[in-house]
C-alpha cells in the first residue's frame, strides 16, 4: 500500500517558499482562488502548513519531533503543468472551453450569499431580503428548454450526430445517393421515440410538483384565517398545520393544541428514521391565552443562515413589548422542518426558510441523466468505425487518382459507406433495454420489482461497489430487548420471569413500608443512597435498574381512543384509566421504545408523560409520579442521554443517565466487568446501553440549575458552555446495569451479502446511525466476517490528527474500516486521494453518522478515483441523493415511505432480491446487449465491405450497389427479428448464475464487449463481405442484375446463419424469427422486379450459386467456433457441462 503514495526529497527552505508562492498563484489563476470551493483543500497558510513537508508514513515520534526528511503533496498538486503547444493539444483546449463555460454559468447563476435573518411574527413585509419562492420543482426542463434539451442529450452521442450530418447531406443534389427516406425515416423514428419518452416522464414530474405546490394551508392574519397555496407561503407567515398534514416550509414551532405544549412529527422523508420526534413549542407563545394574541405581541425570531445540517439549529426568540423583554433560546427541538408530517395535534409556526433554502431541498441533489457504461463503450467503437470509414473513403479516392472534383467523390464515398455505422444500433439497443425491463418486472422470483430508468439495465451486470443504507435496508428497524446484565448476574429472554418476580416483591415491600409510618421510612433510604458501597441484595438492584430504565428516556405513551376523535385523546386518557390495549409508545429512537416495552412486560409501566412529569404504574396498580426537572438529549457527540427527576412521594432528586459504553465507562465508578460484557454483547450483534444514577441534594440541584440556565442563553459557544455545566454532574455515577437490544435483520441478508462478496462486489455501509450500532449490524449481518479485524477510525478534527490516524490505519492489513462522518470530512479535506486509496483496499467499509449529502459525496469520490461502476441501495428520503449520484440506484419500497423507491432506477421490495437482480438480470442484460450491439455493427460492416469490393472492381465508381428499398429492407424486415431475438439468449441458466456468483467477476472486466471482440467481428465482416461479393462476381455470367440477386440473397442467408451461430441457448421465438424473416424475403422477391430478374431467380443455377457462396462464407466460422469451444471453453461452460 505504501508503494502507491509518492515521496519526494525535501527542498531548501527558499525553494519551498518559492514553490508555495507559485502554487498559490497557480490555484488563484485557475479559478481555485479564495471563494472557490476547492480552495480549502489547498490552503497553504493553515495551522498545519508544515504538514506538507511530511510523508504520510511517518512514525508518531517523528511527528512529535517534526523531523521531516521527505516531502509529500497530494497528487492534485504534483502533476506538472505541460507548457505551450503540448499542453494545448493534450487536453488544454478542453480545459479552456470548460473554464469559459463555467465562467459564463457562474455569471448567469450567481448564487446569493446565505445570511442569518430576523423574522417578525406575521409580518412578511418587514423582511429586509428577498427570499426564494416556496415551490417544489423536480422537472429537468421547461417549455422552452424541452426540445433543445432533449435534442442535446441525443446528439451529444457521436452516433446520432453523425447520422444527422449524413441525413442533412442528402439535401445537396451533388451528394444525393438513393432516396431521402432511407436516411431520414430511421433517424426520425429514433428521435420521435426518445422525445415521446422524455415528454411522458417530464409530464409526470410536472403533475407531481403541481400537486405538492397547490396543497392548501391555513395562514393566520390579523383578519383571521385564510387559505394559501403551499407555493405562496412567505418568510414571516404564521401557518397552521393540521394532524397528518405535510409541513410546507421550515418553521419555528410557536404553539400547539396539545395541552403539554409539545407535539410529535414524523421525519421519515427527511432523515430516513421511522420513529416520531418530539418537538416543543416556544413557551412564551404557548402561554398566550388565544391564537389571535400572536398579533397583539411585538416579537421576532433570529435564525442562523440556512445550512445543510438537519440535526442542529441555533436561534433566539425575543418579545420586545414585555417588561423586561423576554429572550428564549431556540434549538432543534423548537423547529419543524419542511417535508416532515405532523403526527399529533395541530401546530402553528412562523416560517423562517422557504423553497431552495429549506433543509430538505438543500439536502437533495439534482438528478443527473444516467448513461450506461455499455453505451459509452459503443460510442467509442462508433468513433473507431468513423475513422475506418474516412480511411476507406480516402483510399478509394486515392486509388481513383484524385481525378476531377475529388473532394465531392470523397464525400460520396463517405455516404456510400455510411452503413459502416448503423443507425439501427440505437433503435435495437433501446428496444432491447425495454425488453430487459419487461423481463425484470415479469420475474416471479422478485415480485414487485419496478424498472424506473429503462436506459441502464446493463449497468446491473458491471457493478464493483455497492453502497447500502443500514436502517430499513439491511435491518427491519424492529427492536427486541434481549439481555440485562447487573455485573454479577445476567438475564436473557428465558429468565425474564425471574426479573418480574423480583419487581413484584420489591414493590410490594416498598408499599408495605410506605403504608407504615411515612416519616420513619425516609431516613434509612437517605442513608443507603449516601453509602452505595454496601452490597445490596439482587432484588433491590433489579428494582433500581428497572426503575432507571423506566424513567431515563424520551418516550411518550399515546392513547388511540377508538371512540374518541383525534381532538379528544387528551380527555380520553383520564377516562380510560390508562388501559393497556390502547397504548402505543412514541420516541425518537426505536431502542428506547423497546426498553420501555420491556419494563412494561416485567411489571413497571409508563402510563403518561408530558414536559414536566411522568407517571409509572407498579405491578399492584399503584401510580408513582415523578417530576421531570431536566432532560439532556442524546447527540452524536456525547453519545448519552440524561434526566433529572424528583420523586413526588419522597421528594428525592435523582439524576439518571444511559448511553454508549465508550461514553459511560469514564463517568461511572470503577468496576471490572463493564468493558468485557459490552464486548460479549456486541459480538452477539446486540446494541448495548449502560445505565447509571446519582442522587442529588436540593442544594446541589439548585446550584446546577442556575449555572445551566445561564449557559443556555449565551450566544457564543452555547453548546460548549452547556456541555461543560452538564459534565460537572456526570462524575462518580453509580453503575446500575447494562442492557442489550437486538435490531432484527431483513430476511436473507446474510446469504445475499455473502453472494455479493463472492461475486467480487465491495460493499460499503453508509448510515446515519451511531458508530456502535453500525458496527453491531456490520458483524451480525456478516458484512464483516467473523475472522476479520475491525479498525475503528478515531475521531479527528484537524490535519495533524488525520495524518496520524491514516498512518495507524495503513499498518493494518485486511481489516474492515469503521469511520464517522465528521472524521471522514476531515480526511477528505486534506488527504482525499490517500484515504480513498486505502479504503478501497478494505474488504468492507462502514461510514456512520453520514448526512445525506455526505453519502452522495462518497459515491462520487469512488466514481472519480476508481473509475468503476457504483450502485447505491436505500429505502428512505435520506438515501435519495446517494441513489441519484450512483451509476445505478436501487430503492427499497419499505416502511420509510416511497421517496427512495421513486427516485431510484430500480425499485425492489426486499434487500434479498438484489442477488437475483444483479447475478441473473444484470448478467443477461449486459451479455445480450454486447452481442446485439456487435452483431448490428457486423451487419453494417459486411454490406460496406461488399460496397468497397464492388466499387474497386468497377473502376472505383461511387455508385451504390443496392438501392432504395433493398437497403431499408436489409436493415429492417429481412434481418431485424432474428438479430433482435438475441435479447432472449442466455449463456448460463439463472440457477447456475446464483449458485456460482464468481461468474459475475468476469463481467466487471468488460470482456464481452471490448476492442478485441470488436476486432474479431470486423475481421469476420471483411471475410464474409469479400467472399459474398467476389463469389457473386466470379459466378455471374451475363447480366449485372444477376450479381445483385446472387449477392443479396446470399447476404440475407449468411446473416440468418450468423445469428444461429451466435446464439448460445435456443428459445422458440428465435426459431420463429429466423423462419419469419426468411419467409418475408422469399415473399418479397415477387415484388422486387425492379432490382431482380424474376425469371433468373427461379432457376436451379441461381440456387446452387447462392448456396455455394453462403457455405463458403459461414462453414469456416462454424468450424472455428467448434474448435474454440473444445480447446478453450469459457468458464461458464465448464460449470454447465
TrEMBL record:
GO molecular-function terms, A-Z: ATP binding; ATP hydrolysis activity; ATPase-coupled intramembrane lipid transporter activity; magnesium ion binding
Biological process terms in GO annotation: endocytosis; phospholipid translocation; retrograde vesicle-mediated transport, Golgi to endoplasmic reticulum
Region annotation (Disordered) ranges: 507-537
Segments crossing the lipid bilayer: 181-200, 384-404, 410-429, 936-958, 964-984, 1014-1034, 1040-1061, 1068-1088, 1094-1120
Enzyme class: translocase
Subcellular location, principal: Golgi
Residues reported to bind ATP: 469-471, 592, 634, 658, 687, 767-769, 849, 855, 878-879
Ranges for domain P-type ATPase C-terminal: 902-1129
Keywords for this protein: ATP-binding, Golgi apparatus, Lipid transport, Magnesium, Membrane, Metal-binding, Nucleotide-binding, Translocase, Transmembrane, Transmembrane helix, Transport
Sites where the protein binds Mg(2+): 469, 471, 875, 879
Localization in the cell: Golgi apparatus, trans-Golgi network membrane; Membrane
Protein family per UniProt: Belongs to the cation transport ATPase (P-type) (TC 3.A.3) family. Type IV subfamily.
Name of the protein this chain belongs to: Phospholipid-transporting ATPase
Amino acid at each position: 500500500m505504501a508503494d502507491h503514495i509518492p515521496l519526494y526529497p525535501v527542498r531548501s527552505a527558499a525553494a519551498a517558499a518559492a514553490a508555495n508562492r507559485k502554487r498559490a498563484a497557480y490555484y488563484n489563476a485557475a479559478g481555485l482562488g479564495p471563494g472557490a470551493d476547492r480552495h480549502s483543500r489547498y490552503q497553504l497558510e493553515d495551522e498545519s502548513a508544515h504538514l506538507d513537508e511530511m510523508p504520510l508514513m511517518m512514525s508518531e515520534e517523528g511527528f512529535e519531533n517534526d523531523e521531516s526528511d521527505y516531502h509529500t503533496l497530494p497528487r492534485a498538486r504534483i502533476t506538472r503543468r505541460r507548457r505551450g503547444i503540448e499542453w494545448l493539444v493534450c487536453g488544454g483546449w478542453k480545459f479552456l472551453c470548460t473554464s469559459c463555460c463555467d465562467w459564463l454559468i457562474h455569471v448567469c447563476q450567481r448564487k446569493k450569499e446565505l445570511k442569518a435573518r430576523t423574522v417578525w411574527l406575521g409580518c412578511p413585509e418587514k423582511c429586509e431580503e428577498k427570499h426564494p419562492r416556496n415551490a417544489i420543482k423536480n422537472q429537468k426542463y421547461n417549455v422552452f428548454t424541452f426540445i433543445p434539451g432533449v435534442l442535446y442529450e441525443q446528439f451529444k452521442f457521436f452516433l446520432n450526430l453523425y447520422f444527422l450530418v449524413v441525413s442533412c447531406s442528402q439535401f445537396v443534389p451533388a451528394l444525393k445517393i438513393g432516396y431521402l427516406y432511407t436516411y431520414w425515416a430511421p433517424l426520425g423514428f429514433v428521435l420521435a421515440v426518445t422525445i415521446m419518452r422524455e415528454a411522458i416522464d417530464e409530464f409526470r414530474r410536472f403533475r407531481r410538483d403541481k400537486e405538492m405546490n397547490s396543497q392548501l394551508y391555513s395562514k393566520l392574519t390579523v383578519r383571521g384565517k385564510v387559505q394559501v397555496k403551499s407555493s405562496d407561503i412567505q418568510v414571516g407567515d404564521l401557518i397552521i398545520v393540521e394532524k397528518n398534514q405535510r409541513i410546507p416550509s421550515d418553521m419555528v414551532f410557536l404553539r400547539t393544541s396539545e395541552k403539554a405544549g409539545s407535539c410529535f412529527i414524523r421525519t421519515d422523508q427527511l432523515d430516513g428514521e421511522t420513529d416520531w420526534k418530539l418537538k416543543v413549542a416556544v413557551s412564551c407563545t404557548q402561554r398566550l391565552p388565544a391564537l389571535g394574541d400572536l398579533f397583539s405581541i411585538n416579537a421576532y425570531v433570529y435564525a442562523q443562515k440556512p445550512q445543510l445540517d438537519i440535526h442542529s439549529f441555533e436561534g433566539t426568540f425575543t418579545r420586545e413589548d414585555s417588561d423586561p423583554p423576554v429572550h428564549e433560546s431556540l434549538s432543534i427541538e423548537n423547529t419543524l422542518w419542511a417535508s416532515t408530517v405532523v403526527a399529533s395535534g395541530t401546530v402553528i409556526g412562523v416560517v423562517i426558510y422557504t423553497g431552495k433554502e429549506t433543509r430538505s431541498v438543500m439536502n437533495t441533489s439534482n438528478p443527473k441523466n444516467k448513461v450506461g457504461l455499455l453505451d459509452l463503450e459503443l460510442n467509442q467503437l462508433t468513433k473507431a468505425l468513423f475513422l475506418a470509414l474516412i480511411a476507406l473513403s480516402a483510399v478509394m479516392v486515392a486509388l481513383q487518382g484524385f481525378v476531377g472534383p475529388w473532394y465531392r467523390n470523397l464525400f460520396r464515398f463517405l455516404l456510400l459507406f455510411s452503413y459502416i455505422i448503423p443507425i439501427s444500433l440505437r433503435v435495437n439497443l433501446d428496444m432491447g433495454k425495454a425488453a430487459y425491463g419487461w423481463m425484470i418486472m415479469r420475474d416471479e422470483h422478485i415480485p414487485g420489482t419496478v424498472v424506473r430508468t429503462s436506459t441502464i439495465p446493463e449497468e446491473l451486470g458491471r457493478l464493483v461497489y455497492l453502497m447500502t443504507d443500514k436502517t430499513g435496508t439491511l435491518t427491519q428497524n424492529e427492536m427486541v430487548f434481549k439481555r440485562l446484565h447487573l455485573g454479577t448476574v445476567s438475564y436473557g429472554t428465558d429468565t425474564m420471569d425471574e426479573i418480574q418476580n423480583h419487581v413484584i416483591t420489591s414493590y410490594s415491600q416498598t408499599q408495605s413500608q410506605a403504608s407504615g409510618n411515612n416519616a420513619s421510612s425516609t431516613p434509612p433510604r437517605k442513608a443507603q443512597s449516601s453509602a452505595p458501597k454496601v452490597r445490596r441484595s439482587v432484588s433491590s438492584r433489579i428494582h433500581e435498574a428497572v426503575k432507571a430504565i423506566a424513567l431515563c428516556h424520551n418516550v411518550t405513551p399515546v392513547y388511540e381512543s377508538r371512540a374518541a376523535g383525534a381532538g379528544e385523546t387528551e380527555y380520553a386518557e383520564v377516562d380510560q384509566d390508562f388501559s393497556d390495549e390502547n397504548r402505543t409508545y412514541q420516541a425518537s429512537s426505536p431502542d428506547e421504545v423497546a426498553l420501555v416495552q420491556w419494563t412494561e412486560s416485567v411489571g413497571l409501566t409508563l402510563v403518561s408523560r408530558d414536559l414536566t412529569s411522568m407517571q409509572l404504574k407498579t405491578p399492584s396498580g399503584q401510580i408513582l409520579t415523578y417530576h421531570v426537572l431536566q432532560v439532556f438529549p442524546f447527540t452524536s457527540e456525547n453519545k448519552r442521554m440524561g434526566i433529572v427527576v424528583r420523586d413526588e412521594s419522597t421528594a428525592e432528586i435523582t439524576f439518571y443517565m444511559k448511553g454508549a459504553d465508550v461514553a459511560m465507562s469514564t463517568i461511572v465508578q470503577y468496576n471490572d466487568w463493564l468493558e468485557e460484557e459490552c464486548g460479549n454483547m456486541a459480538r452477539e450483534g446486540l446494541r448495548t446501553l449502560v445505565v447509571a444514577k446519582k442522587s442529588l441534594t436540593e442544594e446541589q440541584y439548585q446550584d446546577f440549575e442556575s449555572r445551566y440556565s445561564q449557559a443556555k442563553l449565551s450566544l457564543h459557544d452555547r453548546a460548549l458552555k452547556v456541555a461543560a455545566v452538564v459534565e460537572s454532574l456526570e462524575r462518580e455515577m453509580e453503575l446500575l446495569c447494562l442492557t442489550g437490544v437486538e435490531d432484527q435483520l431483513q430476511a436473507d441478508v446474510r446469504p445475499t451479502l455473502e453472494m455479493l462478496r463472492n461475486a467480487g462486489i465491495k460493499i460499503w455501509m453508509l448510515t446515519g446511525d451511531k458508530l456502535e450500532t453500525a458496527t453491531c449490524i456490520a458483524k451480525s449481518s456478516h458484512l464483516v466476517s467473523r475472522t476479520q479485524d475491525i479498525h475503528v477510525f478515531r475521531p479527528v478534527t484537524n490535519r495533524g490528527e488525520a495524518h496520524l490516524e491514516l498512518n495507524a490505519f495503513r499498518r493494518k492489513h485486511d481489516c474492515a474500516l469503521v469511520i464517522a462522518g465528521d472524521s471522514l470530512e476531515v480526511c477528505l479535506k486534506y488527504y482525499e486521494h490517500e484515504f480513498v486509496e486505502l479504503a478501497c483496499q478494505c474488504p468492507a467499509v462502514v461510514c456512520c453518522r453520514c448526512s445525506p449529502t455526505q453519502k452522495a459525496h462518497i459515491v462520487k469520490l469512488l466514481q472519480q478515483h476508481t473509475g468503476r461502476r457504483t450502485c447505491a441501495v436505500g429505502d428512505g428520503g435520506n438515501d435519495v441523493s446517494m441513489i441519484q449520484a450512483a451509476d445505478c440506484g436501487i430503492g427499497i419500497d419499505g416502511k420509510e415511505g416511497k421517496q427512495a423507491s421513486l427516485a431510484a432506477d430500480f425499485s425492489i421490495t426486499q434487500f434479498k432480491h438484489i442477488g437475483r437482480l444483479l447475478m441473473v438480470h444484470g448478467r443477461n442484460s449486459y451479455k445480450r446487449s454486447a452481442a446485439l450491439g456487435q452483431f448490428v455493427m457486423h451487419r453494417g460492416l459486411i454490406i460496406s465491405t461488399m460496397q468497397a469490393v464492388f466499387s474497386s472492381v468497377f473502376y472505383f465508381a461511387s455508385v451504390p450497389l443496392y438501392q432504395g428499398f433493398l437497403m431499408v429492407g436489409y436493415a429492417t424486415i429481412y434481418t431485424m427479428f432474428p438479430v433482435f431475438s438475441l435479447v432472449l439468449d442466455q449463456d448460463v441458466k439463472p440457477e447456475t448464475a446464483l449458485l456460482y456468483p464468481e461468474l459475475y467477476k468476469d463481467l466487471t472486466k468488460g470482456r464481452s464487449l471490448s476492442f478485441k471482440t470488436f476486432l474479431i467481428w470486423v475481421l469476420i465482416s471483411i471475410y464474409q463481405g469479400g467472399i459474398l461479393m467476389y463469389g457473386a462476381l466470379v459466378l455471374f455470367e451475363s447480366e449485372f442484375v444477376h450479381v445483385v440477386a446472387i449477392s443479396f440473397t446470399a447476404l440475407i442467408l449468411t446473416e440468418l446463419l450468423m445469428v444461429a451461430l451466435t446464439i448460445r441457448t435456443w428459445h422458440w421465438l428465435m426459431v420463429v424469427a429466423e423462419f419469419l424473416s426468411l419467409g418475408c424475403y422469399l415473399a418479397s422477391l415477387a415484388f422486387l422486379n425492379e432490382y431482380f430478374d424474376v425469371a433468373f431467380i427461379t432457376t436451379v443455377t441461381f440456387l446452387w450459386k447462392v448456396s455455394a457462396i453462403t457455405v463458403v462464407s459461414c462453414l469456416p466460422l462454424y468450424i472455428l467456433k467448434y474448435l474454440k469451444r473444445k480447446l478453450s471453453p469459457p468458464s461458464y461452460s465448464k460449470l454447465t457441462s
